[in-house]
Design goal:
This protein is an all-alpha fold. Helices cover about 80% and strands about 0% of the residues. The chain has one domain (about 1-250). It is built from 11 helices and no strands.
């Protein structure tokens, strides 16, 4: 366990120093703040516009960080020939992967906290009170954190079996498809409906992990929220298990 935590700590510091991660975080925070100005163009819909734009921006920025940073963690070490000394020590390949994932997940959650604070401040200023900071917003942000953990696990999976570029492309494709799985299954008709069913089961259903509607319409979280959260964590664990299985058998030379 100690090697895993050491690798996670190094990964966290490495990710937080990357310019692409810092730039995306700043951009996301600016978008959230700018949505406050956009909402002033409407009357009576400020909360809906602010919460919708803010949560959407946090989702997009967090996903992009998970994709482009996560896809280079393992494959980048292999390409730079710095992985062999790490796995030659008491740290196994599985411990290395888990450490990389934990460090990436920690950085994503820290970024989410930063954007959540900006969004909370904007919503509070608009409302003139702390009333928008309710259970629906907390649940939506928690589920967004699980979304990012799932995307991070998928990025680690692809990064452990292919190159950085292909890992980024595949992870981004899975992330986009994950938000469209319900729509694809609903509109796909004909003899090949098994294709939509297969996609629905293989691709993570990220739409089920979104509670943006509850915040926008000030409704309580749905009763099955904890089931969706458990599904997301189980999917992430499965992706990491597949990554470990394939990475243990990969030739690193």
């Amino acid at each position: 366990m100690r090697p895993t935590l050491s690798i996670a700590s190094v990964t966290l510091r490495e990710v937080l120093r990357r310019k692409v991660q810092v730039n995306l975080l700043l951009f996301g925070s600016l978008v959230i703040a700018a949505s406050f100005m956009i909402s002033k163009l409407t009357i009576g819909e400020q909360h809906r516009i602010l919460s919708d734009l803010g949560l959407s921006a946090a989702t997009a920025i967090g996903t992009l960080i998970a994709v482009f940073v996560g896809s280079s963690l393992v494959s980048g070490d292999i390409e730079r020939r710095v992985l062999l000394p790490v796995v030659a020590k008491p740290a196994s390949r599985t411990q290395y992967l888990l450490g990389r994932f934990l460090g990436l997940a920690a950085s994503l959650l820290l970024n989410l906290v930063a954007m959540a604070l900006v969004l909370a401040a904007v919503l509070s200023v608009e409302a003139g009170s702390l009333s928008p900071l309710d259970a629906s917003l907390a649940a939506a942000l928690a589920m967004l954190g699980i979304q990012l953990v799932v995307v991070a696990a998928v990025a680690i999976l692809f990064s452990s079996i292919t190159s950085t570029t292909l890992a980024a492309i595949f992870t981004l494709a899975v992330a986009i498809a994950g938000h469209l799985t319900n729509e694809v299954r609903a509109i796909w008709q004909g003899d090949a409906t098994w294709v939509a069913t297969l996609v629905w089961y293989v691709v993570p259903n990220l739409g089920a992990l979104s509670l943006n509607g509850s915040v926008i319409y000030r409704a309580p979280p749905p009763p099955g929220t904890w089931i969706a959260a458990a599904y997301g964590l189980l999917y992430a664990a499965t992706a990491l298990a597949l990554a470990s299985f394939s990475f243990e058998r990969r030739d690193l030379r």
